[in-house]
Amino acid sequence: MTNKCGCVDTSDGVNLTNGGTNEVELVGVSVYPNSTSDVLNIDKGSNASFEITITNNAGAMVYQSDTQNQTTTISMSNMATGIYSYIEK
Fold first, then answer.
1. Do β-strands 14-18 and 82-88 pair in parallel, antiparallel, or remain unpaired?
2. Furthest-apart CA pair in the chain: how many Å?
3. Using alpha carbons only, what angle is made at residue 68 by residues 65 and 69, rounded to the nearest 5 degrees?
4. How far apart are the first and last CA of the chain?
5. Confidence band for 11, pLDDT divided at 50, 70 and 90
6. What is the mean pLDDT of the chain?
7. Whole-number Cα distances in Å, 85 to 7, 8, 18, 19, 47
8. Residues whose CB is less than 8 angstroms from the CB of residue 26 and which lie 6 or more positions away in sequence, other chains included
9. Total-model pTM
């Protein structure tokens, strides 16, 4: 993230890592922006059924949803600063 002075500041956002899926499933999936303190967009490139799970560093599930939309927008603004993992199924 860039603050109003143009400096990069990642201290007040959340970062996501891929928490476990095989490479075949990742083809065409975009997760952005990373890092974020507002919303996270996941674009899977099709309208196929899709389950998204986000966990915190302790492994606790903080978000889970089933969707058939190509793009899913998730509010991350209520989540504590940290690193989170996402899993697509």
1. parallel
2. 42
3. 95
4. 29
5. very low
6. 76
7. 26, 22, 5, 5, 22
8. 18, 88
9. 0.67
